Amino acid sequence: MPEAIHHFPKDFKWGTATAAHQVEGNNTNNQWAVWEQTPGNIHGGDRAGLACDWWRNAEADFDRMVELSLNAHRLSVEWSRIEPREGYFDDAAIDRYRQMLLGLRRRGIEPMVTLHHFTNPIWLEEQGAWENVQVVPKFERFVIHVVRSLGDLCDVWCTINEPNIYAVMGYLTDDSHMPPGRPGNFDLTLRVIRNMLLAHAAAYRALHNVQPLARVGLAHHMREFQPLRPNHVLDHLVNRLQDNAFNQGILDALMHGRWGLILGRGAEQSARAVRGTLDWIGLNYYSRTRAYFDPRQRSTLFGAIIDTPGGEMSDYDYGEIYPDGLLHCLRRLARFKLPIYVTENGLPDEDDDQRPAFIVRHLRVLWAAIQFNYKIQGYYHWSLIDNFEWGQGWRMKFGLYALNPHTQERTPRRSAFLYRDIAKVNALSSDIVREYTPELLPTLFP
Ligand code: BGC
């Protein structure tokens, strides 16, 4: 059989994604470092600790990216290192980030820098962090410092990672194990999301003022929401509301400068400033969620969510594996007519028995989306290496490389070679599928 090939566009970015606190090690000055000290907050009492030791030696893992033929990486800078006390900026921290960005560039890897990925300096946390709209000028000042110091080495910026996840996990979900750990606060959840969007907009303008050619976006986590019972009217209704609160409200604010019905509850600031503040949009896609009507759930508009009963689950029931949801989310983003990056996609899978097929199936969907002319410019797999998975500690392993956090030893999983082979030829081919996931050959290349 001749080889069949799905080519990706020229200059397509093949990358991985990481976040500062999850990989750097010895971050002691943010709210997570405090949170990790309280027993019960992190699975198994784990701590980020030395993490993947990137503060000392990220470069060894940059070499691994080269071995995988990657040409892009998304990493974040840690606000609490750069501004350890309010208004005081640490030059040594900036120098280290300069080294890292140079290290990536020298290896032919385009950096995308995220400016906020879940962690806050302790001084900010003490002021109510994102609950308080005063965060907006503070974030803006931090961003201006970063772009002035690093702007010659980076021009793709991701302002904020997943406002919805940060807010929902910290202020809504009972069992999230994320700081500040104040579940059941729907109104506060909305306020935090709004403040994050206002800060994103301020950062967008600040970045462009300092660096006119900056390409600025935001990483939006979208889940595919579907009603649990297809014939149940109320499930449909709450599903729409959940989808609006979690997925669409943020997109509407960014596109139209309106908070909308749900996100606007109790809003004091107008959303006008948020409109049009994207040069690209990032999608973090993981899984599908089912919504159903539950009259007891007043605080979440009578909606509750579960995974699809009998669905194909990843380890630890992290989420349902549902590649078509990626297409549906991309279709919704394509309406922006902006470049799109898949800024995260992955699963916890220590023994790598699901990941190869996960990657192939999602990349096939991505390729299909590109055939619809959606402007998809890159894919960043979460993650290069096992790292500190927040409230789940070290048990969930998302890496193409396995990490032993005690010895710092790395071992490539089979998925690393699969991803390398795809990135190397900038294509998904029947030969690659035959080698790594032969069970998918009849469906993908019949
Ligand atoms: C977050 C990452 C996290 C990943 C896997 C994303 O929502 O941005 O920090 O590790 O999911 O759970």
Would you give an account of this structure?
- The chain has a single domain, classed as Glycosidases (TIM Barrel), CATH 3.20.20.
- The protein has 16 helices and 13 strands.
- The chain has helices spanning 20-23, 31-35, 54-67, 79-82, 91-106, 122-125, 135-150, 163-171, 186-210, 233-256, 260-263, 324-334, 355-371, 414-425, 430-436, 441-444, and strands spanning 5-7, 13-17, 72-76, 110-116, 156-161, 215-227, 281-293, 303-306, 340-344, 376-381, 401-404, 409-412, 427-429.
- Strands 2-3-4-5-6-7-9-10 form an eight-stranded parallel barrel, surrounded by six helices. The chain has a two-stranded antiparallel ribbon with strand order 1-13. Strands 11-12 form a two-stranded antiparallel ribbon.
- α8 (163-171) packs antiparallel against α9 (186-210).
- The longest helix has 25 residues, at 186-210.
- The mean pLDDT is 97.
- Beta-D-glucopyranose binds next to loops.
- Residues 19, 161-162, 165, 221, 284, 344, 382, 389, 398 line the site of beta-D-glucopyranose.
Annotation field: number of helices: 16
**CA-to-CA gap between the ends?**
11 Å
What low-confidence regions span 5 or more consecutive residues with pLDDT below 50? Answer: none
Biggest beta sheet summary = 8 strands, parallel, barrel
Count the strands? 13
C-alpha geometry: globular
CATH T-level fold name? TIM Barrel
The radius of gyration is 21 Å
